[in-house]
Amino acid sequence: MNVFFALLLITSEVFIQHPDIAECPTPGPITCETNNCTISKDMNLFFRKKTVAKKAEPEKITLEEFLGSRTFAENLDKDFSDSSYYHVQKGDGNKYSFQLGDESIQFGKLSDDGTAGKLNDDRYAIITVVSGDPKNFHRHGVMSQLNNNVLIPPFFFSVIFYKEFNVFVCSTISRNGDDQRNGMYNCFYFDTRGRFLGQDKSYYNPQPPRFSYSGTPSQELIEISALPEQHSLERLVNPRLLVIRNRDFKMGLIDNTGKEVLPCNNDKIFLEDYNEIALVARQGIVYKVNLTTGEWLGTSADAITDARNGFVRMKRGNKWTITDENGNSAVPGYYDYIEYNYTPDRFTIFSGNYNWMINDVDEEAFTAMVGTSYFLLGEYLGTPDYGKWGIVDNHGAVIIPTTYDWIEELSEDLYLLNSGGKLFNYYDQEIDELLFFIVDGSYSICNRDGEQIQQVSDSEVNALNQKYKQLNPKDFYKNAGQHAIRIRS
Fold it and tell me: Domain limits at 43?
């Protein structure tokens, strides 16, 4: 046995007795390569090398392989947002995993900010993994929250979603020195089905992205030309029309090829989707412009304020009105102030002088009530000179008369009314938001038709607020009219 152990130590091999000695050659040679045997001359024993197989490394899918498998042209009928692709398994805490080829990828979800990117859409989440590349230590991708799957695997430095374009722009850091000095990244474009549209070199946040995807049912992929020099993107009207702005903040309209549709000398342009009528404010007049015939028709308004739900808010001097997307009157007449509601066919109106007045007595009282912290990063705007609030529908019919000191929506079907309170206005610079405060007064509620008015106490108002905050969808408070912070003096 000494010879055996000496041989074992010298060769550093592991041997086992041959399973079929009778078929092995006669002792003599040191090795028998045909049968993978090692033979001891001294012991007439036959041994075979024991091969210990190493665990195979999982085959990794490269970025190039992934892009090649996801091209738009080759996957017209595919929707990679479906949960059958890259399904996500939940682990402990903020730990998740999915299978990418033979490799199990562990990842976490990030908040929607920072260098990882920006999505601004609750349907998606940015995911992150730690890589072995010191120049790209964290890699990011996109998870579909609705379908619980990874839409775009974490190959990228950052991810930005352009909601109006239905396009994700995923970037990697260029290894080219000139690109790095010029702030250029490798940009890869994906649609909301996870299909690869194309790539180019661009800045971290390209404006506009190179592609736009129309979505279902047409599934039209449209390439967008670069903007004219010293112009920026104001908004996308549809995949083929863009509102742009020059350095003097004047607006124009171009198509996706860069061709001018309206010159860049307008104060404001409103155009809805594929509508042929554009509302254009220029030199104190709002025009209805027919993009097909080129006809310009003046209106009684002198400024466009904003638009929502197919309605446009306009002004004539200090008076306000609502039109439809073609500039036709939607709420007859002009009001001292008018505001959208969550319910599209309802509007909050103000009758009186909507100029916000500042006086030392009110400011001192307001400061004492809310505390000085509000005034560290903001601007006190005062109170309305005088006036009352009410509700009208899109035909101008009065739903709630203008007899209340404040009105706001509690839900789609319920209004909160204040009588005897005093309204204050304050701009909070830290959160970039205009805040309303209603001080004192009594409260009542009514339905969306202005009926069933009943008094409610402060505690009942708080309870109703909590109830409807839980019941209402997230977009209610985003799209409802102004809400006020209630205070007792």
Answer: 2-49
The one-character DSSP state at 114 is S
Tell me the pTM. Answer: 0.70
* 319 lies in some domain: no
Interatomic CA distance for residues 285 and 267, integer angstroms: 10
Contacts of 55 (CB under 8 A, 6+ apart): none
Structure tokens at 31: 């090795």
- For the chain, give the mean pLDDT: 83
- Do 361 and 472 belong to one domain? yes
CA neighbor of 28 nearest in space, from 18, 20, 40, 37: 40
Mean pLDDT, residues 333-347 taken together: 92
The tokens 């909160």 sit on which residue? 416
Whether the CB-CB separation of 194 and 182 falls below 8 Å is answered with no
- Answer whether 142's CB lies under 8 Å from 168's CB: yes
Nearest-angstrom CA–CA distance, 249 and 251: 6
Average pLDDT over residues 227-255: 92
The answer to whether residue 449 is domain-embedded is yes
210 and 163: one domain?
yes
- Comparing 22-31, 64-73, 311-320, 371-380, which segment has the lowest mean pLDDT? 22-31
Shared domain for 105 and 173, answered yes or no, is: yes
The tokens describing 319, both together, are: 């008076």
DSSP 441: -
DSSP state of 87: B
pLDDT in tens, 144-153: 999 999 999 9
Provide the domain count of the chain. Answer: 4
Structure token digits, residue 330: 């939607």
Specify the 3-state DSSP secondary structure of 219: coil
Highest mean pLDDT among 421-430, 450-459, 464-473: 450-459
Decide which of 313 and 465 is more confident: 313
How far lies 191's CA from each of 47, 74, 76, 87, 339, in Å?
A: 62, 14, 11, 19, 35
Report pLDDT for 371.
65
Chain centroid to Cα 393, Å, comes to 32
Residues in contact with 244: Cβ distance below 8 Å, sequence separation at least 6, in sequence order: 227, 228, 231, 232, 233, 234, 251, 252, 253, 254, 264
Query: Do 166 and 205 share a structural domain?
Result: yes
The Cα–Cα gap between 147 and 159 comes to 19
Domain edge (last residue) among 223, 258, 287: 223
The model's confidence at residue 45, banded by pLDDT at 50, 70 and 90, is very low
Instruction: Flag whether 398 is in a domain.
Output: yes
**pLDDT band per the 50, 70, 90 thresholds, residue 161:** very high
